[in-house]
Amino acid sequence: MRIRSVNSLQVNDRLAKAIYNENGQALLNSGVLLTKTIIDRIKRKGISFVYIEDNETKDIYVDDVIPEHEKLKSVMEIENNFGKMSRDITLGKSIDMDKISPTFGAIVKNILHGIKDQKEVISMLSDVYCYDSYVFQHSLNVTIYSLALGNKLGLNDKQLNELGMGAILHDIGKVAIPVEILNKQDKLTDEEFQLIQEHSTIGFDLLRKSQTISLIAAHCAYQHHERLDGSGYPRGIKGKDIHLYAKIIGIADVFDAVTGNRVYRKAKLPHEALDILYAGVNTLYEKEMVEVFSRTVALYPVGLEVVLSNGHVGVVARQNGEFTTRPVVRVIEENNIPVKPYDLDLMKQLDITIVECEVALTQKMVGS
């Protein structure tokens, strides 16, 4: 399979991975042949990328950290629990965090099991969901990225479980923010932006009252928008005053926010998101953490169409361990001429590099 921008989809392309709505139901199943009507529908949903089948890449597949059905189940459980809390707040009811703690704990345990079994770096684009499920999908993705980074940093099992609970609940304060503000497509007013920023404090207040959720998790919700130089919120604390877990979650949060579909902008690719993180090294984020994260997540996910420095075009076939900038590429085109596909290992061909992505080129052309 290969990843393709929705702007370059063609009639009779065959979908390789299903597209889901916020309820975990397949809007389009894998194997569906795309028509103009279906392509237009995908675009209207605001989706940036899809996975397509073809003969050149039929043996290329994405090795998920957790199986697709488990992802769906987890997202739906997060949504159901967040939704109930939001309704309770609207009705003026108190929220019993202790009742939902086991559900989130089980999700964290399942992800951690997948992380420990994962031999390669995480090769994952944000899954194709509709916008309504962004907060719930984001909570799951941030947990996956946070646990992967924490594991690489050498945290023990107790620490990883604490980190996982903090990550999955980092945005819980958004249950008190009106949906129309969270999903607003236009620029937020100063008052609306300030209200969204309050989710950190709201989340802390919700979690710190729990008897079964660690106070550390509450501080993760409180601090994940704090930055090394004090430019973050809500308190503007600096450096060592920010908890280790909050620093990890802050990196995962930004990475997934940039690579995820949002109502107000298209998703960026992982290597573009990493550039944003590196731009904030030693001012916003710990240098060591960003460097380790760059060896934890595939910068060029499996299935991505790339342009090489020698002018050849190919599809990322597999990763090369922690050498995330040098995957194995299935070359399918040389000098604009299709060729019999062959694999090129960039770890063995050090004079050749990835210089561009076909998806990014398409997005730029459409946006220009």
UniProtKB/TrEMBL annotation:
Q: Which InterPro entries match?
A: HD/PDEase_dom (IPR003607), HD_GYP_dom (IPR037522), HDIG_dom (IPR006675)
Pfam name, any one: HD_5
User: What GO MF terms are annotated?
Assistant: hydrolase activity
Question: PANTHER family of this UniProt entry?
Answer: CYCLIC DI-GMP PHOSPHODIESTERASE PA4108, CYCLIC DI-GMP PHOSPHODIESTERASE PA4108-RELATED
Which PROSITE patterns does its entry note? HD_GYP
Q: Which organism is it from?
A: Evansella cellulosilytica (strain ATCC 21833 / DSM 2522 / FERM P-1141 / JCM 9156 / N-4)
The upper taxonomy is: Bacteria, Bacillati, Bacillota, Bacilli, Bacillales
Protein name, per record: Metal dependent phosphohydrolase
Reading the lineage from the top rank, the first entry is: Bacteria
Give UniProt keywords alphabetically: Hydrolase
- Please verify whether the record's keywords include Hydrolase: yes
Residue span(s) of domain HD-GYP = 114-309
